[in-house]
Amino acid sequence: MSTRATSAGQKPPLYKIVMLGDSGVGKTSLVARLTNPDRPMNHDISATMGIEFDTQMLDTEHGKVKAQIWDTAGQERFARVLLPTYFRKAKGVILVYDITNAKSFESLRERWMTQLNDHASSDDLAKLLVGNKNDLEASREVSKEKAEQFCAEYGMEMLETSAKSGENVLKAFEKLIGIVHNKALEASSRSKGGIRNMNGANDGFKIDGAENKSADANICGC
Ligand code: G3D
Ligand code: MG
Question: 18, 156, 179, 221: which has the highest count of C-beta atoms within 10 A?
């Protein structure tokens, strides 16, 4: 494995990625499973208002990187107000639906892709489709073929996950962050500027040691 991203004692690059999808599809559970793999699922987290983020070190083929993962803390209904802050400087997005809920899949096209295109500079934003709750196969409403068609249409890859069993959860985040990191390395070698300036997610927003903090203050200025 190459270590060029983290050699010479450099800090690993930090990338902001955002979770998107209807309420109840399992976004918070996926982040919790990634950051606290041994903790059983529980949902006192979503009592918080606004936006939350968590950070996690992840492996890529070009070394370790840090993901700053943003999640709407139960505020999907008011997401319109939050979206500009939510998407600011994001480098990747995980679009989540629930394989047992056809409506949550339709929402991706009808709502989330539109909002993504309105608020994010889509060109350099890496996307991954995630069909969550695949432990509930007997209740499946969205076929894998349908999801693959969506991916072909929008040019992204997909994985089915279970935040409950943990299946493919780490793989999903590593897949997305790998795409993000490759894009950044390509861009930096094109500009010959090195990787010094790849920590853009952090501008004006201190995150070192700020695990799982609410970002409310950043939104309302209070
Ligand atoms: P959200 O953040 O997208 O709104 P949550 O979704 O993470 O809050 O999850 C919503 C509900 O789905 C929770 O149930 C959670 O336990 C459940 N859930 C999340 N992921 C999975 C999964 O992979 N499999 C199964 N079986 N359930 C999952 P409650 O009952 O707490 O509302
Ligand atoms: Mg949530």
Answer: 18
CA of 24 from ligand 1 middle (Å) equals 6
DSSP string, 11-75: PPPEEEEEEES-TTSSHHHHHHHHHSTTSPP--SGGGS-SEEEEEEEEEETTEEEEEEEEEE-S-
Which residue CA neighbors atom 17 of ligand 1 most closely?
Answer: 26
What is the C-alpha to C-alpha distance for residues 97 and 82, in angstroms, rounded to an integer?
A: 20
**Sequence-distant (≥ 6) Cβ neighbours of residue 119 within 8 angstroms:** 83, 84, 86, 87
Query: Ligand 1, closest atom to CA 43?
Result: 31
Mutate to test the pocket of ligand 1, among 23, 30, 43, 104 (most ligand atoms within 8 A of CB): 43
CA distance 126 to 118: 16
Give pLDDT tens digits for 149-168. Answer: 999 999 999 999 999 999 99
